[in-house]
């Protein structure tokens, strides 16, 4: 990070970053960061919608401002960092949902558009997917950081796993447990088919089991490493399952494969008048 190369140099996982090694100056890094941030949010504003752009800008501010600052102040930084990880899927939801929006951003306020994309019942699915990313980061990060907890402490970073391993393990277990109601919520609000509750529970159960072991063993006997690998597999599998079990997906595949009539075709058959046939001698 731009603000902490002297601290990153004290950790094995960050000591080879370009800023730490002096391969790029702070000035150039700052210019690059500002340029990509402005261009990126600008493209989202004009190419997608203002709501998605503002979420992206907020994410940059939270990460570069609050999260980076808090890393050396208080363990709550992990919760702030989890928000940063949860916002991108919410941005994706807003980007996709805008094509069905009834609000014309050019003729209404940005707030009206944001309310429709973020604060209606149709937006609950986006918040639930963001919830998956938010909850996932605790078992994943605490299990990852366990192996280098002493390095975090020596570099001056206030990580919970460095100051209170039992609490970090309990938090990992709680958020692993939270995966079950979050995934069930996706089915309840018709984002996925009901079967997703069952299939996601299998992989969520694996991560929960490893989180329980880390809690009971205090991270020892390979329990933290086992939780780390469970989290590495859990997230992509759950997201792929959600895509494969999207509500109504397979019925549309069936209809497309076996030539079932589409709604538009049926409508045309109902409203189009029958063709007149030419009578002989007319």
Automatic annotation (TrEMBL):
Q: Which InterPro entries does the entry mention?
A: Protohaem_IX_farnesylTrfase, UbiA_prenyltransferase, UbiA_sf
* Gene Ontology biological-process entries: heme A biosynthetic process
Q: How does it sit in the membrane?
A: Multi-pass membrane protein
Q: What is its main location?
A: membrane
Print the keywords alphabetically: Heme biosynthesis, Membrane, Transferase, Transmembrane, Transmembrane helix
| Superkingdom of the source species | Eukaryota
A single GO cellular-component term on record: membrane
Pfam families linked: UbiA
Give GO MF terms, alphabetically: protoheme IX farnesyltransferase activity
Q: List where in the cell it is found.
A: Membrane
Transmembrane parts of this sequence: 29-48, 54-70, 79-100, 124-148, 169-191, 226-244
Entry function: Converts protoheme IX and farnesyl diphosphate to heme O.
Name the record gives this protein: Heme O synthase
- What high-level taxonomic lineage is stated for the organism? Eukaryota, Fungi, Dikarya, Ascomycota, Pezizomycotina
């Amino acid at each position: 990070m731009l603000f902490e190369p002297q601290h990153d140099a004290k950790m094995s996982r960050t000591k080879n970053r370009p800023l730490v090694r002096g391969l790029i100056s702070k000035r150039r890094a700052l210019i690059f960061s500002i340029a990509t941030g402005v261009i990126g949010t600008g493209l989202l504003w004009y190419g997608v919608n203002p709501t998605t752009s503002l979420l992206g800008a907020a994410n940059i501010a939270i990460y570069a401002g609050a999260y980076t600052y808090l890393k050396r102040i208080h363990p709550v930084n992990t919760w702030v960092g989890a928000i940063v990880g949860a916002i991108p899927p919410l941005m994706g939801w807003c980007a996709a949902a805008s094509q069905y929006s009834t609000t014309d951003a050019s003729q209404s306020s940005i707030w009206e558009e944001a309310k429709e994309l973020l604060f209606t019942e149709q937006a609950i699915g986006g918040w639930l997917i963001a919830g998956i990313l938010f909850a996932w980061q605790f078992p994943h990060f605490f299990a990852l950081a366990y192996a280098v907890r002493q390095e975090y402490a020596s570099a001056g970073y206030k990580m919970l796993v460095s100051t209170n391993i039992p609490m970090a393990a309990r938090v990992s277990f709680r958020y692993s447990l939270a995966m079950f109601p979050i995934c069930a919520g996706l089915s309840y609000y018709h984002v996925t088919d009901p079967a997703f509750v069952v299939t996601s529970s299998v992989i969520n159960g694996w991560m929960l089991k490893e989180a329980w072991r880390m809690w009971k063993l205090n991270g020892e006997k390979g329990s933290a490493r086992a939780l780390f690998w469970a989290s590495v597999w859990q997230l992509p599998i759950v997201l792929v399952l959600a895509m494969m079990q999207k509500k109504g997906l397979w019925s549309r595949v069936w209809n497309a494969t076996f030539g079932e009539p589409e709604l538009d075709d049926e409508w045309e058959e109902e409203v189009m008048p029958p063709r007149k046939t030419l009578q002989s001698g007319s």
